[in-house]
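Hi R.,

Here's the chain you asked about this morning:
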Amino acid sequence: MMRFISILFLTLLAISNIECAAQIASSNQSTSNKSGIITGADQTDKYLPYLKGKRIGLVANQSSIIGRKSSVDSLLSLGINIVKVFGPEHGFRGNASNGAVVGDEKDAKTGISIISLYGKNEKPTKAQLADIDLMVFDIQDVGCRYYTNINTLEYVMEACAENNKELLILDRPNPNAYVVDGPVMTDDKFKSAIGIHYTPMTHGMTIGEFAQYLNGEGYLKKQCKINIIKVANYDHDMPYVLPISPSPNLNTQQAVMLFPSLCMFEGTAINEGRGTYMPFTILGAPALKGKYSFSYKPVSIPGMSEQPRHKDAVCYGLDLRNYDVNKLRKSRQIDLSWLIELYKAYLDKANFFTPGRANQDVSAFDLRIGTDQLRKQIIAGVSEANIRKSWEPGLQKFKAIRAKYLLYP
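And here is the predicted structure, written out as tokens:
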């Protein structure tokens, strides 16, 4: 009798899991088919059986969703044993400011340990991986060298390789995959927390493709065993509207699309909208008063920008909230015109580019761009056409390398 009850219970449990998976799949269809694109995470039928019976470590943040629910909640409801969650910059819930150190914690809802990869250690330790059978990486990226999710990806892959752990990547579209542009970083002296890869400023790859690039181009001492759940119905030219903000200051699709062009200003005297609810869609500085009529005042906003540049001062500059980002898609380029324009308009040119490392001729701008050449070209008044011409040899070489690792047209 007890054996019959046990069999009945297990059967009902299996049916319940199947029904739950079906409900999630139905939710996925309703959210994904608007564009035809189906993320790797939304294709639960392709990886759920592989997770069963394993102790799972999940690299995730607020952008990690299955259908309309967080990946953590969804996988737990399907009987997956998540023993740890690893959070990148901005934390597991995505509510920490840029660059803020994030500590380890316990998830109040589930009791799962949340390990910060932007606190005591950027790379998972041997001890942190000891009770994990399989690591899963599910984070939305935006395709820029200076967006730190690809750094986290490398550190996770390195840790998995060293500790003989497999990494399952639930791939997601890159909203800026149409553009491969900017100077290629070629010198170690420009490496920093916002750039450790020898790519252009925008690399045009998804996280899954970038993982193959890291394995294939020798970034790791030992290759990581990876398994990628590809995005369905996707190619690099397809527009993709992010369902969740990937970080606190990329809170609109406009900001996501302008980010590759406007993040350059973080190494200058120009505020790029941090300290407002319009980050990466406006540009300005107090010193531009009289040059531009548009103005705004950056303030401290907890969870977004506590100490924005020019805090509590009125800034004057450009309002790009209604700029047609399709122009960027058509040109397949980062916009350089705003940088050139604001440098010309800024009277105190000696202080336009902010200092970087002490005792080195490397500015904060250089670290973001990956070279000092662009800064020197802007100062010298080199034309945009000639600046772009200087990028071409590096871009063509990188595109040939990139082509080996692409999963999508």
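One quick note: The chain has twelve helices and twelve strands.

Cheers,
M.
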